[in-house]
Amino acid sequence: MYEDAHEKQYVLSILAKNNPGVLLRISGLFSRRCYNILSIVACQTEDAGHSRILIVVSGDDRIVRQVDKQVSKLVDVEKVTVLDRNRATIREHLLVKVARTLQNSEKLVELANVFHANILHVEPNTMTLELTGDAGTINSFIELLNPYGVEQILRTGAMAMEN
User: Fold this and answer.
1) HSE value, Cβ hemisphere, 13 Å, CA-based, for 36
2) CB of 120 within 8 A of CB of 163?
3) Can you name the residues that pair with 161 across neighbouring β-strands?
4) Which helix (H) or strand (E) holds 62?
5) Are 121 and 128 in contact (CB under 8 A)?
6) pLDDT in tens for each of the 163 residues of the chain?
7) How do beta strands 88-99 and 126-133 pair?
C-alpha cells in the first residue's frame, strides 16, 4: 500500500453475514462518507454463512473510530476489528507479467529467486511471476522489475489475520 506522510493506514477486519449485497452496503457507506478505500478483499470464511471483508483506509484515529462505528451499525455486520499491525499478519498477492528477452531472462529468474517469487508462465516474449508478501516487498519487487518492461500487474489488497 502507499503511505502518505500525514496519514496512517488502518486495516479493518469485518465479519458479516454472507448475504447478497452486504459488500455493496459496506463499500457504499465509505462512499457516502467520502472515505477513500485503498484496498478491499472479501471472501467466505470457514463458516459458509459468514464473509470476512478486509478494508484498508488512510486517515487519523478519529476517522477510523467513526468508520468503525458506522460499519458496526449495518444490519449484516457482526464484528468490526481495527487490526493492530504489530499483532497481525498482513500480506498481498501479486501477479506480474514482464517483457522477456534472451538477454534479460536470467536476470528475471535471479530477481524471482531473491524475492522467493514463483515463475508461473514463460513465453518467448513474456514471463509471469507470482509473489506474496507485505506491501513493502511487493513495491520493491515491482520497482526492480520496471526497467525490464512490466506489461501487466494484478495485485490483491491487503489480506490480514490476527496472530
Assistant:
1) 9
2) no
3) 89
4) helix 61-72
5) yes
6) 444 456 789 999 999 999 999 999 999 888 888 888 999 999 999 999 999 999 999 888 888 898 899 999 999 999 999 999 899 999 999 999 999 999 999 999 999 999 999 999 999 999 999 999 999 999 999 999 999 999 999 999 999 999 9
7) antiparallel
Q: Cite the beta strand spans of 45-158 per DSSP E.
A: 50-59, 77-83, 88-99, 118-122, 126-133, 150-155
Q: Are 72 and 81 in contact (CB under 8 A)?
A: no
Domains in the chain (CATH in brackets) are 8-83 (3.30.70.260), 89-162 (3.30.70.1150)
Burial of 54 (0-12, 13-18, 19+ CB in 10 A): buried
Taking residue 89's Cβ as centre, other Cβ atoms within 10 Å add up to: 12
Q: Which amino acid is at 27?
A: S
